[in-house]
Amino acid sequence: MSATPSPAAAHSAAEETLPILTIDGACATVRLNRPAHLNRLHPEDVLELSRIFEQITQDRSIRVMILTGTGRVFGAGYHLGELAQQRKNIAADERSDQPYSDSAFERMCDALEDLRVPTICRLNGSVYGGATDVALACDFRIGIDSCEMFMPASRLGLHYYRRGIVRYASRLGMGAAKKLFLTSQTIKAPEMLNIGYLDEVVPAAQLDDTVKRLADILAAQAPVAVEGMKRSLNEFGRQAFDHDGVNRRHAQSLRSEDILEGVTAWHEKRKAVFHGR
């Protein structure tokens, strides 16, 4: 006869779900929701995040996205069992020295980095392993003053995937990337801020107000210009600058209704109301 789970255990199991999307006006919030496992990402979570990011991209009413986690940790990384399965897949291939195709996790992180709208990672707690790249793929990261991070790739014997390496090196600098990848050392919030992993560090009680303030600022900007400049800056950061693309985006902004509204509002000394056209 099986034992009856305690109320606490039953509640813990019940609250474990796929990532949750909520939309409030122009702001979408995505919440990792496996607190009993420190928001460890499973393959089904990765697929759901990819689906959510596509939904946000298609919904033109959304102008900013917040990514956060439930509980005391933002994310504990990717399920190690999936890495073991990838190793089996490669080992079974006699051509295993050939470039390995992008994993669903890598594609999800790339989709987050390339998301149409600006993104804020609300680091409600510490961040580990692959979750560090999920956060780094966001445009801004605001964390609580007790958070920490580490990237255990070298401790696990793992060479990180291509775009993850590029994100670390281009966004944090070569010195910080080498320290985090090659030593697997844990760093605390002050150093996370110093190397640029965090844009702002605040007490836990101020996290929501700080994130909302930035989200409101981003949502109020001209969508055509923001979308184009985010794409151009990301391209430049990973040394894939599309000169013709930048010129097209510049011309598109000059043809937009948003620039007429922006200039008019500037002269009339009022807040602009943009419609993303």
Task: Report on the architecture of this protein.
It contains 13 helices and ten strands. The longest helix has 16 residues, at 43-58. With 277 residues, the protein is of the alpha/beta class. The protein has two domains: 7-219, Alpha-Beta Complex (2-enoyl-CoA Hydratase, Chain A, domain 1); 223-267. Helices cover 49% and strands 15% of the residues. It has helices at 7-14, 43-58, 80-91, 104-113, 130-136, 153-156, 162-172, 174-183, 189-194, 207-219, 223-237, 243-255, 257-267; strands at residues 20-24, 27-32, 64-69, 73-75, 119-123, 126-128, 140-144, 148-150, 187-188, 200-202. It has a six-stranded mixed β-sheet with strand order 1-2-3-5-7-10, sandwiched between helices. A four-stranded mixed β-sheet has the order 4-6-8-9. Helix 11 (223-237) runs antiparallel to helix 12 (243-255). It is globular. Residues 1-14 and 96-101 have low confidence and may be disordered. The protein starts with 6 loop residues before the first helix and ends in a 10-residue tail after the last helix. Helix 2 links the parallel strand 2 (27-32) and strand 3.
Shape: globular
Distance between the termini: 64 Å
The structure class reads: alpha/beta
Describe the largest sheet.
6 strands, mixed
Strand count = 10
Q: Extract low-pLDDT stretches.
A: 1-14, 96-101
Considering DSSP H and I runs of 4 or more, what fraction of the residues is helical? 40-55%
Compute the number of helices: 13
Domain count: the total is: 2
Q: Mean pLDDT across all residues, rounded?
A: 85
Radius of gyration: 20 Å
CATH architecture of the largest domain: Alpha-Beta Complex
Strand content: 5-15%
CATH class of the largest domain: Alpha Beta
**How are helices and strands ordered from N to C?**
HEEHEEHHEEHEEHHHEHEHHHH
CATH overall fold name of the largest domain? 2-enoyl-CoA Hydratase, Chain A, domain 1
Strand arrangement across the biggest beta sheet: 1-2-3-5-7-10
